[in-house]
């Protein structure tokens, strides 16, 4: 009961409308599943038939837009202050975005999609169905799919960590709407993201549990498939996902994602080594080359001149583009959350290439492997199951010497993928519904996990999952257009960012005129210890700030001098404002290591320890600080005034001022 009494951080203007929409649509799909599905299928068919080219153009533009950003000047900008660094290791980062991005779909479609394209090719005149099957699979799961996720994550991460706005969809509209993102438009955008995330996870959970149930029956742990058993699976998976989400990203989600990736590599290695290894490696090389060769044509292809392939195109390519776009709010928010500190170039290249290459290898090992075994070993037994994806994976495993072990490992993989998709989804839903508020009570994560499990069970029982999936795909078109608007907003913000950071940054220590050179030489030959740095603060920094504060006060400007904001030994001078960021110039002592090369060299200053303490500045806008250990009291005052002049000039300039506007209390106070 104490948990329920904890104060909620839910944003009422998002959480309440979101819950009402979720419950209303879920009841609609549960009570009238057939009618709802028929109506939604009619809408989907119309949208796909009339606007399939829009999906193609949107995804193509997203992909090209990311390439332009990655290899342009904007690629050097960090997702956060200039001095920020990634929170997670590269392996942990890739593991988490991979688990959230594709998740259980790799297990469900790894064999099923290539086999389906092999049996039912895009055109009846296809000369080599196996080769074209792998090309289509690479296209649907490769660079374009990850471009959608990468773009959404980039927009959210940039505006959240660079502009200090909430980590939500509305923040991406700031260059267009300004303060109005706090109103109705922002609430609608976040509510849409909440509903889209919930339904995307719910449908994946419903269809994933069917495959997991089929696998347990296949290996003999369960005797049959039943609704009660499927509910038990959902309950077990949801319980683990809730525990992981409550533990947080670093302790729960990260560790599960890393384990998930390790298991995926292990399973893929087993299949690769036990199967036709030489063929699979050759197929990977050839399929990858064929994909690169055909990439431009595939990107813009709408089958306008091959009417026989229109049905295949809308059923597969358009469906996948709609599915990935519908997942973009969820996956993008999660990727953004774990990507602070990386440069735009590093982010785009890694998110596009690393998961795509892994997926290509995965689809080759499972998809091309299944096609090869079906043709040379199984005598068509696997292709006969092309329309039964729930059991196709386990039938594929049955063709190997260690079939039982592979099936068990496959079931474990499905379960872990299940959990990693659900726990990241729970965290994202809580983040959206609470306005990314810090220190949300743990019961809120548990609430979303429980609601997800209950609605998934209800829809599974009523047969409404198909309707829900169709609804999600239909919603993708308007959200794709919203993403296009967000691209425009990102361009405007990046242009402002580059204008601001390309300004000349005068710095006093670079303009030393040679006076007091003996004192400067003594400083150079001395590596400051704690007593030295304390003396520097007491004799130079504090007197400089006190003198400057008195001068500002005499001119009618209120100034604060604060101690201890950036560690025990730090002091800052602050000028507070209502509508713009506070001006801040601070100095903090940083402990740094001294190179072993310098310590071991004889003809250098004597060093008594391998540590030194450096006075480093920090500013309102998060820029990297400067070492001011060689400045005198007067030079420190001059340096503060240079920064203040730069600050006033930037705020006065219409083109640069947006960086300094206080956007709802997210600036450092």
From TrEMBL:
NCBIfam families per UniProt: bcct (TIGR00842)
Family: Belongs to the BCCT transporter (TC 2.A.15) family.
UniProt KW Transmembrane keyword: yes
Source organism, top-level taxon: Bacteria
Signal peptide positions (record): none
GO molecular function, one term: transmembrane transporter activity
Compartments (UniProt record): Cell membrane
Organism the protein comes from: Marseilla massiliensis
Entry keyword set: Cell membrane, Membrane, Transmembrane, Transmembrane helix, Transport
Full protein name: BCCT family transporter
Database matches in Pfam families: BCCT
Cross-referenced InterPro entries: BCCT_CS, BCCT_transptr
Topological relation to the membrane, as annotated: Multi-pass membrane protein
Any one GO cellular component localisation term in the record: plasma membrane
TM stretches of this protein: 12-33, 53-71, 91-111, 143-163, 184-207, 227-249, 261-284, 313-335, 347-371, 391-419, 446-464, 470-491
